[in-house]
Amino acid sequence: MEQAKAFLDESLDLDALLTDAGSLDLSRSTGFKAWSIETILRHLHFWNQMAFWALEDTAQLQETLVPVMEGLTRGDSLTDVEGQIVLAEGAALLSQWRQTYQQLAQCYSQADPSQRCPWVGPSMSARSCITARQMETWAHGQAIYDELGRVRSNTDRLHNIIVLGINTFGWTFKVRGETAPEQMPYVELVAPSGTLWTFGEENSASCITGLAEEFAQVVTQTRHVEDTGLSYAGEDAKRWLYNAQCFAGGPNPPPTPGSRFMRVD
Fold first, then answer.
1. Which domains, and CATH codes, for the chain?
2. 208 vs 117: CA distance, rounded Å
3. How far, CA to CA in Å, does 74 sit from each of 69, 122, 211, 243?
4. Is 37:144 a contact under the CB 8 Å cutoff?
5. pLDDT per residue over 91-115, tens digit each?
6. What percent of the chain has pLDDT over 70?
């Protein structure tokens, strides 16, 4: 699957960033809920492992999810639950994350894209599962890029995340108990390569235009739409961009305007 290669490349880019940073203090807090770089890596590693078992070992996945759900039910935070299961820290955690993302990319590259993979909620196709891992790596990686004051160089593999954002248009409203508009706004985005990506019908009453990178930032909630150069017209487009959520779970508010940015020392 092309998506498995995209996930691998996304992980390799984040790995290169961490390597280039040298003796990086992984306890440094980031702009994402004050999560440390180590917390982000633990989160990515844990769910990469879950995605591997979703494809290769359903029994192990279900067994591991039991304490996760029990912890969340009694009010523990997700990061606390992950920390109780993934005990590695520092260099050991970094090594485990590296090993797991490579293993995950390898097994999904050989998988049937339509194979069903069990998950916390509804099952997903293998293609959707590995695309979600690319999205998570890209989105959480943004907090590390921001903290280190590094500008990210995106490629057209971003298209997978854009499609995920488009496909979850209805979900953004459903997760909030709202009825989605009958027609999705027309979306016209400039890819990193300069290619024009379009989605929806041009005769839509609402539209969104701008850079694909910034649209991806909004749907993954790494930037508030007001902190981007995206343009939009129509109330439906505004409602979508101000609440966009391309990931599962309960309704999650986007970052407040001005709260997510690249650190400049």
1. 2-153 (1.20.120), 159-241 (no CATH)
2. 33
3. 9, 22, 42, 28
4. yes
5. 999 999 999 999 999 999 999 999 9
6. 100
